[in-house]
Design goal:
It is a single chain. The chain is mainly α. The protein has one domain. It is about 60% helix and about 0% strand. The chain has four helices and no strands. α1 runs antiparallel to α4 and α3 packs across α4. The chain is globular and about 30 Å long.
Length: about 70
């Protein structure tokens, strides 16, 4: 079972997504840094991540689904 919370991830993405904080939270440091540098792909990447988290298709670094 995954210890990363779906609710925490969706809230981090919504409020701090352009900084990539939700990606750091789930262990995806490399892409988190890229989001930080590009301001979430000018918001597009953040929006896509937000939708993916909402529909349950966003996984942590090990490929495990987020805990609901």
């Amino acid at each position: 079972m995954n210890s990363k919370s779906w609710l925490v991830t969706v809230l981090l993405c919504f409020f701090l997504g352009v900084l990539g904080v939700h990606r750091f939270y789930v262990g995806k440091v490399g892409t988190g840094i890229l989001q930080l540098i590009t301001f979430g792909g000018l918001g597009v990447w953040t929006f896509i991540d937000f939708i993916m988290i909402l529909i349950g298709k966003f996984n942590d670094k090990q490929g495990q689904p987020l805990a609901r």
